[in-house]
């Protein structure tokens, strides 16, 4: 195996420049718990996790990391680790239990407390509006497949902007729309568990429209805010040099890396490489060629691995399939994702090649490995190696003058990893879920030291 992992990491904070932003990322459903406390309505993830055999060991996020009750402890821990930027998401159904009607004052109060406590601790809140937990009541009306979601989303974003915009100046509209539409509305492995093109295509189009709409609403209500949105992205390598595999890789790249950014930049959907996407036009109404456009202040890119893609005539629409890392004799994480640090560099380079992008921030990067508690400590050398190897690649991009201005690790504490339940641990901080006790892992201790001279 030929892996570019560092034997030593000798970069210093200042090597990344004075204005480079360092932080950690989390998401509401994965951490908060308190799934029906204080008036919160159910989300699609509350419902999806109740269905048997959808999630590893039928686990769910009803308690998760209990961040709802332990947010002060967690933010204080963050502060003690010299982390100055905290990216978290708002739960739509905690704020508006049925998605579009009455507001839940206790939900507003909770996020006010989180935001105020961050500021008190000198931590800048970076807020994601939508990290996959749609209110169930809206899904019962078609969710992302129903165009009325534009009205529901506008109403929700307006509320968030009006309630929190006086203190929150860093916003992200959507988290990884390709994942929530692909896994949730095509493959059916994430909530709401829908399948087929007839669900996927309208969900994609409406997410593209909401991505820009959310940006416009934020800019209107908080003119001095810094507005971004985030994308999952992975370097795609053809399995062989055959024309067929190269073509398959191109198609996968269009779907996984270009589908959501290009419409926002005015480039439209990548229909040349994936002709089936032309069918999205069935969901267009007049004006829809302009509505996806928004001039984001930054683009958040989230990278974990690379994908190797091979031609396959059995895969409908794209004739391309991903070859699992476990079949390729490469170093993998617990998610069976290949450890491939230069993928993050390639993605930074790729997003730099779009002239319409003003600023790029890595809003997620991290890895799940088996963690063992020994004498009260967790020595997660593999995670530390992973983070350092990827950071070296971010630094390489910076040295070459590429635009990349921040890095948020995924994630602060271990949490609920969607369909994989609690098995994969991505945290810098270990959680014993039986007692909710936190232990800073070696990777977290390293970050604490690395960030100690932050001004
Ligand atoms: C998501 C996170 C997730 C992480 C690791 C990203 O796709 O934004 O919610 O936990 O990757 O899978």
Major sheet, described briefly? 8 strands, parallel
Helix percent band: 25-40%
CATH H-level name... which superfamily? Glycosidases
End-to-end Cα distance, whole Å, is 40 Å
Q: Count the beta strands.
A: 15
Overall geometric form: globular
Give the helices and strands as they follow along the chain: EHHHEHHEHHEHHEEHHEEEHEEEHEEEH
Radius of gyration: 21 Å
Query: Unreliable runs, pLDDT <50, ≥5 residues?
Result: none
CATH fold-type name: TIM Barrel
Bound molecules: beta-D-glucopyranose
Q: Number of DSSP helices?
A: 14
Mean pLDDT: 97
Which structural class is indicated by helix and strand composition? Answer: alpha/beta
Name of the CATH first level: Alpha Beta
- Give the number of domains: 1
Concise structural overview:
Belongs to the glycosyl hydrolase 1 family. By secondary structure, the chain is of the alpha/beta class. The chain is built from 14 helices and 15 strands.
Report on the structure:
It is built from 14 helices and 15 strands. The strands form 4 sheets. The protein has an 8-stranded parallel β-sheet. With 455 residues, the chain is an alpha/beta fold. The model has no long low-confidence stretch (mean pLDDT 97). The chain has one domain: Glycosidases (TIM Barrel). Helix 3 (67-80) packs parallel to helix 5 (105-120), helix 7 runs parallel beside helix 9 and helix 8 packs antiparallel against helix 9 (197-221). Helices cover 34% and strands 15% of the residues. The structure holds beta-D-glucopyranose (BGC). Beta-D-glucopyranose binds next to loops.
């Amino acid at each position: 195996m030929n892996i570019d992992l560092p034997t030593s990491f000798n970069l210093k904070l200042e090597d990344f420049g004075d204005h480079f932003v360092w932080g950690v990322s989390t998401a509401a459903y994965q951490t908060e718990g308190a799934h029906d406390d204080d008036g919160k309505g159910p989300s699609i993830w509350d419902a999806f996790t109740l269905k048997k055999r959808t999630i590893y060991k039928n686990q769910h996020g009803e308690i998760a990391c209990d961040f709802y009750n332990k947010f002060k402890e967690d933010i204080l821990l963050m502060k003690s680790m010299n982390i100055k930027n905290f990216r978290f998401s708002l739960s739509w159904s905690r704020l508006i239990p049925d998605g579009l009607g009455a507001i839940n004052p206790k939900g507003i109060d909770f996020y006010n407390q989180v935001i105020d406590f961050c500021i008190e601790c000198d931590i800048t809140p970076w807020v994601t509006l939508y990290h996959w937990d749609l209110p169930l009541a809206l899904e019962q009306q078609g969710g992302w497949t129903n165009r009325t979601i534009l009205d529901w989303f506008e109403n929700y974003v307006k509320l968030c902007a009006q309630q929190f915009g006086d203190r929150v100046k860093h916003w992200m509209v959507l988290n990884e729309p390709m994942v929530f539409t692909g896994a949730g509305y095509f493959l059916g492995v994430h909530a709401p568990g829908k399948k087929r093109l007839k669900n996927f295509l309208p969900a994609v189009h409406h997410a593209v429209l909401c991505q820009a709409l959310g940006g416009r609403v934020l800019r209107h209500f908080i003119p001095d805010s810094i507005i971004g949105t985030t994308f999952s992205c992975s370097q795609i390598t053809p399995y062989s040099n055959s024309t067929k595999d190269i073509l398959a890789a191109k198609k996968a790249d269009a779907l996984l890396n270009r589908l959501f950014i290009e419409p926002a930049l005015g480039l439209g959907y990548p229909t040349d490489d994936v002709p089936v996407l032309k069918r999205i036009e069935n969901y267009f109404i007049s004006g829809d060629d302009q509505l996806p456009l928004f001039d984001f202040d930054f683009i958040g890119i989230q990278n974990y691995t690379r994908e190797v893609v091979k031609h396959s005539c059995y895969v409908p629409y794209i004739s391309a399939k991903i070859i699992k890392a476990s079949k390729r004799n490469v170093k993998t994480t617990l998610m069976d994702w290949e450890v491939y640090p230069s993928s993050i560099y390639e993605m930074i380079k790729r997003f730099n090649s779009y002239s319409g992008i003003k600023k790029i921030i890595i809003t997620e990067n991290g890895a799940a490995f088996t963690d063992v508690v020994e004498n009260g400590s967790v020595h997660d050398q593999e995670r530390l190696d992973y983070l350092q190897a990827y950071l070296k690649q971010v630094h390489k991009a910076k040295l070459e003058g590429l635009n990349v201005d921040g890095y948020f690790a995924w994630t602060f504490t271990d949490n609920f990893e969607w369909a994989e339940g609690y098995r994969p641990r991505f945290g810098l901080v270990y959680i014993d879920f039986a007692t909710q006790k936190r232990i800073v892992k070696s990777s977290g201790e390293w970050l604490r030291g690395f960030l100690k001279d932050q001004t």
